[in-house]
Amino acid sequence: MSNLTGFVKRVRDIMRNDAGINGDAQRIEQIAWLLFLKVYDAKEADWEWEDENYRSVIPENCRWQNWAHDDRTGKAPTGDKLLDFVNNTLFPTLKQLPVHAATPVKKAVVQSVFADANNYMKDGVLLRQVVNTIDALDFGDYEESHAFGEIYETILKELQSAGSAGEFYTPRAVTDFMAETIAPQIGQTMADFACGTGGFLTSWLKELKQKVATTDDEAAYNRSVFGIEKKQFPYMLCVTNLLLHGLDIPNVRHDNTLLHDLLDYTDEDRFDVILMNPPYGGNEKADVKNHFPSDLASSETADLFMAVIMYRLKQNGRAAVVLPDGFLFGTDNAKVNIKKKLLRDFNLHTVIRLPGSVFSPYTSITTNILFFDNNGATKETWFYRLDMPEGYKHFSKTKPMKSEHFDPVRRWWHERQELTQEGFDKAKKFSVRELTEERGYNLDLCGFPHREEEILAPLDLIRRYEEERSSLNAEIDRVLADMSALLGEQAE
Question: Which pTM value belongs to this model?
């Protein structure tokens, strides 16, 4: 496995000398499509071995083994010849692969992955060096393939520093904790409707893999995950991620979840488990809101995804969802209506308040994990505040959240004891009446006691202000409506 050592550094050092690569985002995207083709080539070798009638969807001249592999005979294209092939043959061919309704998913993903992919490199000699470095990886070797899965995690983490691409990466500690707590079972299906690079999908698979005992179990494991990703680049990374995790059929769609009518979903569109960190902080256009019932048509992206989750969770299904503080304290009409539906139709049994810098450097907004089941109305909800671990002032790229930082929650989860710390609630149970009648659906409970000391990034500060202003306006409107009604009664 010596060729794995320093893989990312070697590729980065080569690309730094290419005039066509402008910044981290382009560098990682360049690595991504090359890795996809290399990993897909290894999977096709397996499929051909298992099925002598297997035929690749990729024309022979565009298969990795026939242009990228360098057998050291001097025949492998390099320089201008390689650039010409990649730009004028490979990309046009893969972007226009014939895909129709009957095309198997494992073949159709190639065209989807390359729909908006780009080759940024301008130096064909340097491109050959990068290709050779990637080609040296042996995905036919189980140990090396598994080890590369760890390296791929490193590549995904680099997205955090690649500009806006950071939104695609949820820390592994968070996805693993949520998957572990939701307790996957063989035969269940799990979905993420904004799956990014596939962190929740692979965390689910890691947990489920421990329960695979038979070939039938293996088949169910392969069919267990479903993802949708709106943006091309993370979609490509996600498909590659699933292939690396041994899935022959990476059931991920390149699509926008929010552009489908909410009321059109049927039982076939529902899942046993939903694990998500929906995009938040964005405002959707009016035409997006037209796909939602008027009472749930929020302009906040995370709210809309919550509505989708509730409509697509099976009876007796389980969900764990990351949401910003704004969802908890927000009392504008759409948020209240979404929370009314959540508490009326679902069992919101636990809310975990996360430290503010878990998603640093992407956002400093404080987030929460909501755990709920589709097995009846909420009667009571537990809130638990997960404090920053001892010795940490905040998490960062160099000091990220680790799995063991969730140990206090793991210990508390089964005991469910109310806790106070320095006079503030750390863990407490609230009845649904307290949440609705007494608090007006403001679920901002067991929060961090020294919030005034938070220093938010300017955009995060603006988003929080907008959430609070919207909630305050809604509260003023309700008070005025009550006063108007009272004055009307007195006039009579």
Answer: 0.84
CA distances from 364 to 132, 154, 354 (A): 40, 22, 11
- Which residue, among 267, 271, 105, 252, has the nearest Cα to 191 in the 3D structure? 271
In whole angstroms, how far apart are CA 267 and each of 66, 260, 270, 347?
45, 15, 5, 20
Q: What's the Cα-to-Cα distance from 235 to each of 31, 376, 436, rounded to whole Å?
A: 14, 35, 39
Cβ atoms of residues 40 and 110 within 8 Å: yes
Asked if pLDDT for residue 165 goes beyond 50, the answer is: no
Alpha-carbon Rg for the chain, nearest whole angstrom, is: 25
Q: Which helix (H) or strand (E) holds 426?
A: strand 424-431
| b/e burial code for range 197-234 (CB count within 10 A of at least 16 → b) | bbbbbbbbbbbbeeebeeeeeeebbbebbbbbbbbbbb
DSSP secondary-structure letter at 366? Answer: -
Interaxial angle between packed helices 124-135 and 24-50, expressed in degrees from 0 to 180 and rounded to the nearest 10 = 50
Angle among Cα 270, 271, 272 to the nearest 5 degrees reads 140
pLDDT in tens, 110-159: 998 998 889 999 999 999 999 999 998 887 666 666 667 777 777 776 65
Which tokens in the block code for residue 32? Answer: 């991504």
Supply the pLDDT for residue 111. Answer: 93
pLDDT score for 170: 85
User: How remote is the C-alpha of 310 from its chain's centroid?
Assistant: 18
Number of neighbours of residue 445 by Cβ within 10 angstroms: 19
- Return the H-helix or E-strand segment holding 367: strand 367-373
Rounded alpha-carbon distances, angstroms, from residue 189 to 172, 196, 273, 313: 21, 18, 6, 10
The residue to which tokens 């730009």 are assigned: 87
- Using alpha carbons only, give the angle 376, 378, 380 rounded to the nearest 5 degrees: 140
